[in-house]
Amino acid sequence: MSLEQLTEGVREKVAGGGIEESVKFDLGDAGVIFLQGSDVSNDDGEADCTIKMTADDLGDLLSGDLNPTAAFMGGKMQVEGDMSVAMKLGSIV
Hints:
Layout: H1 3-14, E1 22-26, E2 32-36, E3 39-41, E4 49-52, H2 55-63, H3 68-73, E5 78-81, H4 83-90
Parallel strand pairs: 1-4
Antiparallel strand pairs: 1-2, 2-3, 4-5
Helix pairs in contact: 1-2
């Protein structure tokens, strides 16, 4: 999936209302997806929580093929910052 497709996928997930805190998906060379509430962009800013993973793994997470807990425990996702924000995000994605 392209960065644009992934960004749109995240946008669809939070369209009904996201979380108050800011989250950044750091996809390495593929780019970043920044979200706060239902606002989603590709701006690289400071976030309450940064989630590092590959673009392919984020695609699998958004499609439901990858469980967030399994991704974290299996090392496919690294969380920096406020872990409670990442936990809230799990209910959305």
